[in-house]
Amino acid sequence: MRATDHIQDMAAAIQKLTEKGFTYESDGSIYFRIASFPGYGKLSHADFSGIRAGVRVEADRYEKDDARDFALWKALKPGEPGWDTVIGRGRPGWHIECSVMAMKYLGATLDIHAGGVDLTFPHHENEIAQSEALSGKPFSRFWLHAEHLILSGEVMSKSLGNFITLRDVLAQGYRPEAIRYLLTSVPYRKKLNFTADSLPSAETAVERLRNFKLRLETDKYAEGVNQSLIERTQQATTRFEEALDDDLNTAEALAAAFELVRDANSAMDAGGFLASNVAPALEFLRRFDAIFDVLRPTQQESGLGDAQVEALIEERNQARQTRNFARSDEIRKQLLEQGVVLEDTKEGTRWKRK
Ligand SMILES: [Zn+2]
Questions:
Q1: Cα(61)–Cα(351) distance, rounded to whole angstroms?
Q2: Contacts by 114-118 with C-beta closer than 8 Å and gap 24+?
Q3: What is the CATH number of domain 3-146?
Q4: Which residues have CB under 8 Å from 251's CB, separation 6+?
Q5: How far is the CA of 102 from the centre of ligand 1 (A)?
Q6: What pLDDT score does 235 carry?
Q7: Are 120 and 151 in contact (CB under 8 A)?
Q8: Separation of 118 CA from ligand 1 center, angstroms?
Q9: Alpha carbons 319 and 13: distance in angstroms, whole number
Q10: Short-list 72, 64, 78, 104, CA closest to 91
């Protein structure tokens, strides 16, 4: 869906705003008059005390009545693309396309409007002003402002040249589910610092969850039920739901899942995990995966990628450190079945493909 296919809709919206008295014209451009919209600032609670209304200011080469006023429609500078519309020839300002297109396809009031944290002011504030001035209804019930992705300490941006693409990391052999896991592992209001370790540890985490599920589905357990584990599973479910209800605290939800996996694995190792504990644990994973969606492979996997091999070796090392030799042998066997041979040396574990 292209903004340039909606220029006439934008012009019609600006005409309507003008009829309602929310705009003024200056040097051939049309501005939204902030003073005509008393709710301005309710989203960002920005401090406008330094900006005086009624003072003519020059910004963006055009004269405005108030520094906060923003262009709805711009007069053309030489060489700029323009469109012929009911309000004349020109081009739309930056903000109007969002309001017009969102309301055209989603209705006057949106359930959730998301965006980067840097867009709160002025962009989203301006969207609210235009949209609510047009419709007379609340523009969005909820706003989700996501923090930036940080690449080794710096904001990832095209202009700085320090960005990586999804295609890059997939080409390095990382599974889509590990990437999804990593991106959801930090709550959306916190900065995610992407480092060289991020994806390998996400691979390990996903692998750990999948192994637990496999263990539930394939191991044999003695008949009966371990009541304290049933309670433990219920506790984890409650904590998981409450974390997500708390402004999508995904880190806390994941912690609830991993602590349950840890406790259940220990119970399995000690023979305390019984047949009737399987179904509730699987139900927890089903609920977990309805949100995080990392347990099933998204794409057909053709053998293990390098990152997955490394993640399994890392898990095997941890198993050996805790003297869980059953698990470490299981991983060696799993890798061998995928054509990966391990060799333990003084320097650590080496591996090669058969
Ligand atoms: Zn927008």
A1: 63
A2: 114/143, 114/144, 114/145, 114/146, 115/143, 115/144, 115/145, 115/146, 116/145, 116/146, 116/148, 117/145, 117/146, 117/147, 117/148, 117/189, 118/148
A3: 3.40.50.620
A4: 185, 186, 187, 190, 243
A5: 9
A6: 98
A7: no
A8: 11
A9: 63
A10: 72
Domain extents in the chain? 3-146, 150-292, 306-353
State whether residue 193 is helix, strand or coil.
strand
Superfamily of 150-292 according to CATH: Isoleucyl-tRNA Synthetase; Domain 1 (1.10.730.10)
Contact of 288 with 240, CB cutoff 8 Å: yes
pTM: 0.73
Q: Which amino acid is at 145?
A: H
Positions in the chain whose pLDDT score sits under 50: 53-62
Determine the distance separating the centroid of ligand 1 and the alpha carbon of 32, expressed in angstroms.
16
Quote the pLDDT of residue 249: 98
CA 124 / ligand 1 centre spacing (Å): 7
Q: In which residue are the tokens 């053998």 written?
A: 303
Closest C-alpha among 269, 288, 276 to residue 228: 276
One-letter amino acid of 175: R
Quote the distance between the C-alpha of residue 264 and its chain's center.
Answer: 29
